[in-house]
Amino acid sequence: MNVALHPPKPRPGDLVAVISPSSGLPGLFPLPYELGLSRLRNDFGLRVAEYPTTRTMGATPRQRAADVNAAFADPAVKAVVSSIGGEDQITVLPYLDRELIRACPKPFFGYSDCTNLLLFLRNLGIVAYHGGTVMAELGRPGALHPLTERSLRAALFTSGEYELSPSDDYRDVDRPWDDPRTFDGEPGTEPAEGWFWHQGDRTVEGPGWGGNLEVLSWLLMAGREVLPAEEYRGHVLFLETSEDMPSDREVYWILRSMGERGLLRQFPALLMGRAKSWSFEQPLGSPERAGYRERQRAAVLRALREYAPDAMAVFDVELGHTDPQQVIPVGGRIRVDGPARRISVTY
């Protein structure tokens, strides 16, 4: 796989597109969405263009794809940002205009179900950015977490190397988006334990590849956007799990299938996001949440022992469904320095 292109970055005053390629949740939960839009405008200094399905629940895959195509085709639009994730973006992929998007590369920000579009862009040779949705990060109650804001600003506006930092605190428990009281102040956080290093005795550098583990499993089953395993030799894998909270057995089974496909052994290093361990359906207490994260780590390590025993891994990295969140470039360089316990990315 050739080195990917870093699209030109927007500047304050430029126009950015906000799209909903997975779900029109802005129409159901306007409070975090409007807050995120206001921060894009007032704090980041950007102008915003919305599209027909941005706030529309139930839009067809073809309609959502039309918005994606239009956002990339518009020469006035300098970046594209997803409102939120969802669960059926895989059905949008067949309607995307590959040649149009290849000819009009732009920075795209999203994660979770946007793993579909992120890997689609990577396969077109375009660096894309895992993180930074309007509703979840920009729409955070009270204020953006400082670590989130620094990373998002760097990825959105600048180019070059950026060092990730382990956070002193994190948030796992959510509050309802349809309750105005949620937005009266910042959410509560708890102390973070830092990154957990496995076989951190070397330095690895390579293009980043990965995303949400559950969505990757769907792409693998559908045979979409995942290239032959050898194409990823020397890449740095990054993975994270969602608020659906897959069990440790499910996590192991997915990684086992990736191992059987020959994927895991291609990656000399893995960054594993801090596991989301609370949801409205599973409101675990603190000890139970810690146990969930420990079991997931054990499942990942088991898969690595069996399929990539020489790989280095770093756990509880601030990527994906966690707060704070740092942006990871898909196709951009990632450097994992085990002896120095440092991780840097190229935006």
What's the structural blueprint in terms of helices and strands?
Layout: E1 15-19, H1 30-42, E2 47-50, H2 61-73, E3 77-82, H3 98-103, E4 108-110, H4 115-123, E5 128-130, H5 134-138, H6 146-157, E6 161-163, E7 169-170, E8 190-191, E9 196-198, E10 203-212, H7 213-222, E11 236-240, H8 248-260, E12 269-273, H9 286-307, E13 312-317, E14 328-330, E15 333-337, E16 342-346
Parallel strand pairs: 1-2, 1-3, 3-4, 4-5, 10-11, 11-12, 12-13
Antiparallel strand pairs: 5-14, 6-16, 7-8, 9-13, 10-15, 15-16
Helix pairs in contact: 8-9
Gist?
The protein has 347 residues and is of the alpha/beta class.
**Overall pLDDT metric:** 97
Report helical residue fraction.
Answer: 25-40%
Supply the number of helical segments: 9
Count of separate structural domains:
2
- Give the overall silhouette: globular
> What CATH architecture of the largest domain would you give?
3-Layer(bba) Sandwich
Q: Tally of extended strands?
A: 16
Main sheet, how many strands, which sense, barrel?
Answer: 8 strands, mixed
Stretches with pLDDT under 50, minimum 5 residues? none
Calculate the terminal CA-CA distance, rounded to whole Å. 19 Å
CATH class membership of the largest domain: Alpha Beta
Query: Strand percentage, roughly?
Result: 15-25%
Strand order within the widest sheet?
6-16-15-10-11-12-13-9
